[in-house]
Amino acid sequence: MPKKVIVGTVVSDKMDKTIVVSVAEKKAHKKYKKTMTFTKKFKASDVNSASKVGDVVSIIENRPISGSVRWVLDKIVEAAK
């Protein structure tokens, strides 16, 4: 089974070797059919501390690294301005 790859924005890099990535998803409301934006945060391992807040990054699914980290930084898609 292939590993999942998602793209999101880095919202925190305060932790050592870990970043928090916010992923936005647009879905239609079940009853009213209005398009709504839902966000979810993922903790990802960033061993080299390469990414900063505001970067758009790609993260890939991985085995559990710690209690809450299950993703690894794949690449930086777009650097923050």
Polypeptide structure, described:
The protein is mainly β and 81 residues long. 0% of the residues lie in helices and 54% in strands. The chain is built from no helices and five strands. It has strands at 5-12, 18-28, 35-45, 56-61, 71-78. A five-stranded mixed barrel has the order 1-2-3-5-4. It is globular and about 45 Å long. The N and C termini lie far apart (36 Å).
Which key features would you list for this structure?
mainly beta, five-stranded mixed β-barrel, single chain, 81 residues, 54% strand
Summarize the structure.
Helix content is 0%, strand content 54%. It is mainly β.
Q: What is the gyration radius calculated from CA atoms?
A: 14 Å
Average of per-residue pLDDT values = 97
Largest sheet: 5 strands, mixed, barrel
How is the largest sheet built, in terms of strand order?
Answer: 1-2-3-5-4
Distance between the termini: 36 Å
**Spans of 5+ residues with little confidence (pLDDT < 50)?**
none
Order of helices and strands: EEEEE
Question: Helices and strands: which structural class?
Answer: mainly beta
Number of beta strands: 5
Give the amount of beta strand, in percent.
over 45%
- The best one-word shape is globular
**Percentage of residues in helical conformation:** under 10%
How many helices in DSSP terms? 0
